[in-house]
Amino acid sequence: MATWAWVFLPVALLVSVKLVKFVISQISQRRTTRQFVSPPSHWLYGHLKQLLPDESGWPVLKQMMSDFSNYVLQLWVGPFLPLYILIHPDTCRSILSTHEPKDELFYGFLKPMIGDGLLLSHGSKWHRNRRLLTPAFHFEILKPYVTLFSESTNVLIDKWTSLGPGCTVEMFDHLSLMTLDSILKCSLSYHSNCQTANEPSPYIRAVYDISRLFVERVRFVPFHSDIIYSLSPSGRRFYKACDVVHNFSENVIRERKAQLAEAKESDLPRRRKGKCLDFLDILLEARDEDGTGLTDAEIRDEVDTFLFEGHDTTASGISWTLYHLAKHLQYQDRCRREVGALLHGRTTMTWEDMSQLPFTTMCIKESLRLRPPVPGVSRTLTQNLVLPDGRKISPGFQAFAGIMATHQNPLVWEDPEVFDPLRFSPENSRDRHSHAFIPFSAGPRNCIGQHFAMIEMKVAVALILQNFRLELNGPPPFYEERIVLRARNGIWLKLHKME
Ligand code: HEM
């Protein structure tokens, strides 16, 4: 065969394979998109300009839901890429009950921070680690954390008290430091004093840099390219901050391993020294049936995942609950009466208290319904997704379970925009669809930390209400998605110390 043929034939083969794949994907795309009627869109941007990840996007989405479908919306990201937004418990269930992987774009940006921990891994690695990590959230492990949450909340209460009577405070920043304080104690037994330190430690500064720089990256499209980002000053700062966080976790893991080795030799396990077990203890002791444990790199990824997933989410949940209670004083008073009757001024809460705050719990849930800290989760389809009405979405497309949209779907919730905690009374919850209220997602990839989060939120809300009367201050907060749901200009509340 002539020399040119050796070059030409493989190239021609490659091009034809690609062409065939492209044609097949176009046919399957057409087959999928033809089944849905999309709201009118711009020929180039698609729905990108209408679908803003903040409060201004909500009326548009609401209108689309009422005009087109309250089950699934086909929207366009640019001219060619459809995105399926599932906005009803039935359609959310169809995606959340699968093991489809997370989408690479958004979740991929998290990889340098949290590696291949539980949130991002999939397949057999995820299966194994979910099984090994589940005991870390057993109630026997969570029980002593109630004291740690009380401690962190009391530090915050002292800080607020020292600001003087009638001060106005931005909730999220303070609560985010408080939940970081707690998650560091619960996961690593690390007492950072981050709430009171005048200067943040390099580690705390790095955690904050990461959150800020991550949001900047999501918003600035050129930064979506790994090459451009790693060459930019922001990217360099981001990767440096990730190194600081990783080095910190690695050091703690190394030290703990050494301590455990020593303790075993002298037969003095940590738990007998009166310390509660933290997540790191569980991760170090986790074993497969054949006795294989997690590697140091896997433990580090899981620790970093807990730190990342476990503080701003909860801070968002507490901030919005306090906001709703400041807005609806009758419910705030009712919660305070409930807390007062239980605690009688006690400043440390117990595990048993957790089931004794039914109305406060309803208020937290109603706030999670209206302002879920994680407003939606997305998946890349690897096989057909069959919707309850028989329509199919082809592999390769993105399906987004709209948690917030489902929580406000008028087919499911009466007067969805009204804050009404009694929706969560036992009688009113009895016949509710299992996927109507999904702040912690649902199905196999649901939030492993949901009980931890609910306990932390109950402790914080109860102790804060015991100490302060909360009043609105300034215009209503305008929500936006910044990894978690936050308020653009903060949630500012006036605090009146209770006598
Ligand atoms: C109010 C607080 C919280 C909310 C609203 C929340 C919400 C969620 C949601 C919606 C998911 C699913 C994400 C997805 O599918 O992409 C998730 C997953 C996860 N959450 Fe949470 N979360 C909260 C607190 C926590 C806490 C405190 C921890 C750990 C201490 C935690 C650890 C995780 C982990 C590890 C996953 C991944 C689970 C898996 O894929 O197997 N979360 N969370």
TrEMBL record:
Its cofactor is heme. PROSITE patterns: CYTOCHROME_P450. GO terms for cellular component: endomembrane system. The gene is LOC109470784. Gene3D superfamilies: Cytochrome P450. Belongs to the cytochrome P450 family. Coiled coil: none annotated. Its main location: membrane. The chain crosses the membrane at residues 6-24, 68-87. This is Cytochrome P450 4F4-like. Heme binds at residue 447. The lineage of its organism: Eukaryota, Metazoa, Chordata, Cephalochordata, Leptocardii. It is found in: Endomembrane system. GO terms for molecular function: heme binding; iron ion binding; monooxygenase activity; oxidoreductase activity, acting on paired donors, with incorporation or reduction of molecular oxygen. PANTHER family: CYTOCHROME P450 FAMILY 4, CYTOCHROME P450 FAMILY 4 SUBFAMILY F MEMBER 11. Keywords: Heme, Iron, Membrane, Metal-binding, Monooxygenase, Oxidoreductase, Transmembrane, Transmembrane helix. It comes from the Eukaryota. The keyword Electron transport does not apply.
